Amino acid sequence: xxxxxxxxxxxxxxxxxxxxxxxxxxxxxxxxxxxxxxxxxxxxxxxxxxxxxxxxxxxxxxxxxxxxxxxxxxxxxxxxxxxxxxxxxxxxxxxxxxxxxxxxxxxxxxxxxxxxxxxxxxxxxxxxxxxxxxxxxxxxxxxxxxxxxxxxxxxxxxxxxxxxxxxxxxxxxxxxxxxxxxxxxxxxxxxxxxxxxxxxxxxxxxxxxxxxxxxxxxxxxxxxxxxxxxxxxxxxxxxxxxxxxxxxxxxxxxxxxxxxxxxxxxxxxxxxxxxxxxxxxxxxxxxxxxxxxxx
Length: 295
Prior knowledge:
alpha/beta, Beta-Lactamase, Rossmann fold, 7-stranded antiparallel beta sheet, 7-stranded mixed beta sheet, 9 helices, 14 strands
């Protein structure tokens, strides 16, 4: 990830005393910010944690050089992906992009005057699903239980879902990932950068609706995986999968099952889910608080 930063920023970050790097935030004419497992902090021109008043200020040249590196000096070649608000780098790392939106005919045409970039390191945790896989697949060779992973933001939902996908595919099931935001497989130029299993097909950038249609028509999945369920239409999509005999693994935001089960999209899902996994950060991201059999 560091090689895509402007030289001045790269040199500072490489010298910084930090643990496992998670984020690098570049904001025009504002302090350079990093994040590791201890949290966020500003970085001084001497590559040391510092208050904002003494931190290195990101320049226009820093942003311009970084943009050249992440787009390979061709903004237009990446414009469609940029319209989604981010770029995916080799290794699955992501760069969030903020700037001025330009509209044409009511649709977003491009983003210009880039004012900030947020580099987020891709993290896969092989074995993250070890504690729940035997409940999702109770007996080898038998059916998968449709599973919903619930937690507030930042509790490891996608990390657990990714490893669960890998393990379910490894158990011999044909899996399709509808990766609407490119967060599960983190594909780069069509190739998954993170391990989602040998028997997994990835529909990268597809909407859930189009992805389900494509999967059912052409890929014959036994299990469909998708992230961030929460819209009304998602319930209808889940119901379509259930009617087709396909199992579902998905995530949604929520504090707990009692809160989530009152949402209208779930009512429209016709009781698709059979298992709910509740996560928290109580003992760190990915803490499994409970596994509930609901179907």
